[in-house]
Structures are given as C-alpha cells and as structure tokens.
Amino acid sequence: MIGARRLARISRPWRFIAAAVLIALSVAAAPALSQQSSKSAGRAELRITGAAGHPLVLHDEDLLAMKRQSVAVTGEKGGKAVYEGVPVADLLERAGAPLKEKLRGPAIALYVVAEAADGYRAVFAITEFDSAFTSQTILLADRRDGHPLTSADGPFKIIVPAEKRHARWVRQVTALDLQRAR
Ligand SMILES: Nc1nc2c(c(=O)[nH]1)N[C@H]1C(S)=C(S)[C@@H](COP(=O)(O)O)O[C@H]1N2
Ligand SMILES: [Mo]
C-alpha cells in the first residue's frame, strides 16, 4: 500500500509534467491552427502590375464577388473538366487596362505576362482577352468541377479553352504583368 504522503510526493511531479506537456502541445499547435484559419479566410492573392492601368491586388473573395463564368474543357490527355472563375479581361479592366473601345492605336502594343509561383511565364497579347477581337473567353479559374483548385494547379489557373496545347494554361498564377512592346 502506498501511503497518502508518499502518493502526494509521487503525483506532484507527474502533475507538473502533464501540465508542461499540455502547454508545449498548445504552443506547437498554435502556428498550424493560425495557418489553417488564414487559409480558410482566403488570403490567396493575385497581383496586377505593369505599364498600363494601376496596380491592383485581388484576393480570392474579390474574385468570388465578381461576375463568374464557367467553361467545360478537354484536357491535353482527353480528360474533361469544368473550370469556373473570372474572365481575365474583367480583371485587367478593373486594373484600368484599355479594353473594348479603348483598345486601339498604341494600346494594341500591350501584352500580358502571366507569372506563376514556380517561375513559369506565358505571354498573351492584350487583344486575346477582348471580346470585340475574339469569341474565346480566357478565364482565370479558381474552381474545377465545383472545388477549389489543388495546390498543384491553384489557387489560380489560366484557362485558354480554344488552345489544344496547354503551355499557356498557367498553373499557380501569382501575377498578371501588363507591358508595352517597344
Ligand atoms: N506554373 C506552371 N504552369 C504550367 C507549366 C509549368 O511548368 N508551370 N507547364 C505548362 C505546360 S507546358 C503544360 S502542357 C501544362 C500541363 O498541365 P498539367 O500538368 O496540369 O497537365 O501546364 C502548363 N502550365
Ligand atoms: Mo506542355
């Protein structure tokens, strides 16, 4: 039998250790929890930069509040998917880029560099986004088949529906840089 005095002597250090372990665990979990909540609060961002218009930073909730469009596409390997997002033209317009009736004269020399997190780059002439020039809608997608894009694809991916090769279907888009040809 363990006497009451002896029990108190044994259990006190154990109580101390249990408390220390609990504190250590909560300290360790805090960064993971705050990362989780910042992710669900949607801090994925898209920068629009460059020569024409004004700089603009958009978050995924901004894209969700804009006029949305979806497109059914066939992948390079034949798989089908429905991408949903915002026409790149609307994003450029929001940043003050000349489109529609303003897309004429010197503005015809503008081009957009789509920049990705892995350093990949693709170039589009500004006319490729304008509905007066083309019936194709190039989309900045944030959803595929109703779900947010995977980390390999997203948070944002450019969809070029009429293009059979997918070299300009830029994954992990971080910025659209609007430049003028010299
Ligand atoms: N960020 C990024 N996007 C990219 C690429 C890349 O290397 N990095 N490769 C492109 C090329 S060449 C192709 S064929 C497709 C391939 O897309 P998938 O891996 O989803 O099939 O992504 C395009 N988008
Ligand atoms: Mo490719």
Give the helix/strand layout.
Layout: H1 4-40, E1 45-50, E2 56-59, H2 60-65, E3 69-74, E4 80-87, H3 88-94, E5 110-116, E6 121-125, E7 139-144, E8 147-148, E9 157-159, E10 173-180
Parallel strand pairs: 1-10
Antiparallel strand pairs: 1-2, 3-4, 4-7, 5-6, 5-10, 7-8, 7-9
The protein binds the ligand Nc1nc2c(c(=O)[nH]1)N[C@H]1C(S)=C(S)[C@@H](COP(=O)(O)O)O[C@H]1N2 and molybdenum atom (MO).
The ligand Nc1nc2c(c(=O)[nH]1)N[C@H]1C(S)=C(S)[C@@H](COP(=O)(O)O)O[C@H]1N2 binds next to loops.
Which descriptors would you attach to this protein?
single chain; 182 residues; alpha+beta; Sulfite Oxidase, Chain A, domain 2; five-stranded mixed sheet; five-stranded antiparallel sheet; 3 helices; 10 strands; binds ligand MTE; binds molybdenum atom
Question: Could you please describe the fold and organization of this structure?
Answer:
- This protein is globular.
- The protein is 27% helix and 30% strand.
- It has a 5-stranded mixed sheet. Strands 3, 4, 7, 8 and 9 form a 5-stranded antiparallel sheet that branches.
- The chain has 3 helices and 10 strands; from the N terminus they run H-E-E-H-E-E-H-E-E-E-E-E-E.
- Strand 5 and strand 6 form a beta hairpin.
- It has 2 domains: 4-40; 43-180, Sulfite Oxidase, Chain A, domain 2, CATH 3.90.420.
- By secondary structure, the chain is an alpha+beta fold.
- The protein starts with a helix and ends with a strand.
- It binds ligand MTE and molybdenum atom.
